[in-house]
Amino acid sequence: MTVTRREAFSRGLGLAGWGAFVLALGSGATETVRFFFPRVVFKPPSRFGIGVPQEFLSGDTRADTYGVAFVDDRWKSRQRFFVVRQEDRIYALYARCPHLGCTVNWFSDLRVFKCPCHGSQYRSDGVNFAGPAPRPLDRLWIERDAEGELVVDTAIVFAADRAEVDGAFIDV
């Protein structure tokens, strides 16, 4: 049996058409199954309690020349912020350097924050004084809840020029 060119061409297109149909059907089925298993990024909650204000009022009561008496770095590694107590207020400093986003470190003996990437340095109140950082460290939302516990929200960030608005600090 001989096959003409026309028959071979029509059979080839028929096979290609059926192949495309099966391929589309298979990819649709695959996407339908993937729909039931959504891609989820699990992040820690942005809002959490850090303790009562009395925990930050105890200890050393002497303030440095910028009014900072205490810097607590317990949340630096997990949540990326510091709790700072001045003589009359408590606030949360974001530990992200505004230059390139590196995590700054607190040096208690020098009473400064330092960025390990490009050498930016910040006073104990978060104001930059050396290095390429374009502005001071940002602050995070902080408030007292109904039970009197301090609550920080890392999703709400105040730039340094808005550091005096409600939510950027707690009066003590």
Notable traits:
elongated, single chain, Rieske Iron-sulfur Protein, 172 residues
Short description:
This protein has 172 residues and is of the alpha+beta class. It is built from two helices and eleven strands; from the N terminus they run αβαββββββββββ.
Order of helical and strand elements: HEHEEEEEEEEEE
What share of the residues does DSSP label as strand, in percent? 25-35%
What is the count of helical runs? 2
| Shape estimate | elongated
Top CATH class of the largest domain: Mainly Beta
Residue runs with pLDDT of under 50 for 5 or more positions: none
Q: Would you mind describing this structure in some detail?
A:
It is elongated and about 105 Å long. The chain folds into two domains: 1-42; 47-171, Rieske [2Fe-2S] iron-sulphur domain (Rieske Iron-sulfur Protein), CATH 2.102.10. It starts with a helix and ends with a strand. 20% of the residues lie in helices and 29% in strands. The longest helix is centred in the N-terminal third of the chain and has 31 residues, at 5-35. With 172 residues, the protein is of the alpha+beta class. The mean pLDDT is 85. The protein has helices at 5-35, 54-57; strands at residues 47-51, 68-72, 81-86, 89-94, 105-107, 112-114, 121-122, 128-130, 139-144, 150-158, 170-171. The strands form two sheets. Strands 1, 2, 3, 4, 9, 10 and 11 form a seven-stranded antiparallel beta sheet that branches. It has a four-stranded antiparallel beta sheet with strand order 5-6-7-8, with no helix packed on it.
